[in-house]
C-alpha cells in the first residue's frame, strides 16, 4: 500500500497506528521490517537463494522478542508474577530467562564465549524488576541492543566465530539457532498461559509459522 496516497492506503496506514515504513500488516499485527528476511519468515515464504541463514535467524528472534514485549503492558502485574505451567515459573521469570541470552550473544561475538548461566543470575536480575515499567524497560533495551548488533554485523553472521559453550566449541550460528528456538518455545507458553487466564492477546505472534523451528507438540 502507498501510505501517502491520500486515499485507501493512507487510511489503512493511519488505522494501523502510522507505523514506521516499511512495515508488514499481518491481520491485526504490524511488524516493522528492518531486513528482507523478516518478510519471508513472517509470511512463511521461501527465502531467496542468496539469503544468509544466520541473518534470518537473528531477525526472526527480533520479531519474537518484539511481540513478547508488546504483549506485556496489557497484562495485570499480579498475573506476570504468578506461577505458570512452565515448571511454576512466572512470566517475569521467563522474560528474564529468554531475553538475557540475546544480551550475551552480542558479547559472545567479541569474546568467542557464551556462558548462559541461569539460576542465580536470572534470579538476581528478576528480583530488581519490581513493576511493569521496569520489566518492559529491561526487555526493550535487550531487543534494541540485539537489533543494533544485527544492523552492524549484517551478513558477517554467516562467517561468525567459533564459540566456546556448554556444548563445546560450536559455530556462532548454532548458538543463535538454539536461542531463536528457546525464545519461540517460551513465547508460545506465555501466550497460552495468558489466554487461559482470560487475557485478550489480539496480535499475538504465531511462532509456529516460522520456518524450520520444529517446536514440540507439547506446549509445556
Describe the model:
The protein has 220 residues and is mainly alpha-helical. The chain is 52% helix and 7% strand. It contains 8 helices and 4 strands. It has a two-stranded antiparallel ribbon. α2 crosses α3, α3 (53-71) packs antiparallel against α7 and α3 (53-71) packs parallel to α8. The longest helix has 25 residues, at 172-196. The chain is globular, with a radius of gyration of 18 Å. The termini are far apart. The relative contact order is 0.15. The mean pLDDT is 86.
Give a brief description.
Helices cover 52% and strands 7% of the residues.
- How much beta, percentage-wise? 5-15%
The count of DSSP E runs of length 2 or more, i.e. the number of strands, is 4
- State the separation between the terminal residues, measured CA to CA: 40 Å
Radius of gyration over alpha carbons? Answer: 18 Å
What is the molecular shape? Answer: globular
Mean pLDDT: 86
Spatial order of strands in the largest sheet: 1-2
Q: Helical proportion?
A: 40-55%
- Helix/strand-derived category reads mainly alpha
List the helices and strands and how they pair.
Blueprint: H1 8-15, E1 23-26, E2 29-32, H2 36-42, H3 53-71, H4 77-80, H5 91-111, H6 120-127, H7 132-153, E3 162-165, E4 168-171, H8 172-196
Antiparallel strand pairs: 1-2, 3-4
Helix pairs in contact: 2-3, 3-7, 3-8, 5-6, 5-7, 5-8
Amino acid at each position: 500500500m502507498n501510505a501517502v496516497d491520500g486515499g485507501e492506503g493512507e487510511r489503512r496506514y493511519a488505522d494501523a497506528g502510522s507505523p514506521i515504513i516499511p512495515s508488514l500488516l499481518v491481520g491485526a499485527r504490524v511488524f516493522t521490517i528492518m531486513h528482507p528476511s523478516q518478510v519471508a519468515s513472517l509470511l512463511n515464504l521461501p527465502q531467496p537463494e542468496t539469503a544468509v541463514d544466520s541473518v534470518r535467524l537473528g531477525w526472526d528472534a527480533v520479531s519474537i522478542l518484539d511481540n513478547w514485549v508488546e504483549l506485556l503492558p496489557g497484562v495485570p502485574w499480579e498475573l506476570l508474577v504468578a506461577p505458570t505451567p512452565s515448571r511454576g515459573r512466572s512470566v517475569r521469570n521467563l522474560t528474564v530467562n529468554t531475553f538475557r541470552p540475546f544480551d550475551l550473544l552480542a558479547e559472545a561475538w567479541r569474546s568467542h564465549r557464551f556462558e548462559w548461566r541461569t539460576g542465580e543470575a536470572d534470579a538476581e536480575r528478576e528480583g530488581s524488576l519490581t513493576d511493569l515499567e521496569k520489566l518492559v524497560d529491561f526487555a526493550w533495551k535487550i531487543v534494541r541492543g540485539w537489533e543494533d548488533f544485527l544492523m552492524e554485523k549484517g551478513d558477517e553472521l554467516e562467517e561468525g566465530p567459533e564459540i566456546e559453550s556448554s556444548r563445546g566449541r560450536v559455530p556462532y550460528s548454532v548458538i543463535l539457532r538454539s536461542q531463536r528456538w528457546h525464545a519461540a518455545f517460551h513465547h508460545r507458553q506465555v501466550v497460552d498461559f495468558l489466554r487461559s487466564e482470560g487475557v485478550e492477546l489480539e496480535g499475538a505472534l504465531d511462532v509456529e509459522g516460522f520456518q524450520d523451528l520444529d517446536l514440540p507438540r507439547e506446549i509445556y
